[in-house]
Amino acid sequence: MSAQVPDVIELEPRFLPRVWGGRRLAERFGLETDEPIGEAWMVFDENRIASGPYAGRVLAEVLPELGEAFLGRAVVERYGYRLPLMVKFLDTADWLSVQVHPDDAYARAHEAKSGWLGKAEAWVVLEAEPGAQVIYGVKRPVAREELRAAARDGSILELLNFVPVQKGDVIYVPPGTIHALGPGLLVYEVSQRSDLTYRLYDYGRGRELHLDRALDVARLEPIALDPLGLRVGPFLSAPHFNLVFQSGPAALSPGGSIRAAVRLDHTEGARLVRTAAAYKFDSGEWLIAEPATLPSKPEYVA
Questions:
Q1: Which pTM value belongs to this model?
Q2: Which one of 17, 95, 271, 276 counts the least CB within 10 Å of its CB?
Q3: What is the pLDDT of residues 204-228, one digit of tens each?
Q4: Is 16 in a helix, a strand, or coil?
Q5: Which residues form the catalytic set?
Q6: What CA–CA distances, in Å, run from 110 to 18, 103, 208, 217, 243?
Q7: CA distances to 129, 176, 178 from 134, in Å
């Protein structure tokens, strides 16, 4: 390929302190800070490019220049010249807020000025302390005003479905799912290009709640959940992204165990961007997220 269209564009992660954050991300990335770093935004089109001819530029500025030659026609036709995914690492020392994300239709109608999409996401549990849990939906059907009152008086936790998790679990979280990560987790999160979050409950930490919008989008009935285990090859196909567990070092150029890049892939002559914040497991596999180019129903790939 020409020098103008590289196979791999490595990105500089963005590190964000959070009230619930831990110490693992700061230690693994060698950050000199006492703040609790809860999120590392590994792949986002507002990240700066780390190396090569575009070093120092924001990825979003470069993608229109690279065009279909890098992104591929199918990605451009569905998403335009934007990177449609975000990939983060989350380190939780405390509970995240009980929250919910809107779908694309709600985001377009009510959050157009933000520039964000709706938010479907998936979690891959990389590390989990004994007894680690997440919240996933409600335990029983609830009425909108019942949930509002419970969010205000703190009894909402009695209505929620607490799920034990362990290393290797994969959980798909569609828009509208009430959810929260619990303490003691290191999680790889892939999502649509969105940070729209509506908080229902925050354990009295004083941050803003968004009850009206949360109740507009929240699913008020239980949602079945059967966490998937990691295995080599494609293992999760969702409407907006796919997850692949890949053997060997070919997932990205050689380097540290945590990488952030977008990678150009070739399949029978077609070009497809692969959004990768590759986490290298002890066994040598890499975890890769890629945008879906055709609408589909979420499914675990057999």
A1: 0.87
A2: 17
A3: 999 999 999 999 999 999 999 977 8
A4: strand
A5: 199
A6: 26, 11, 18, 11, 29
A7: 12, 16, 11
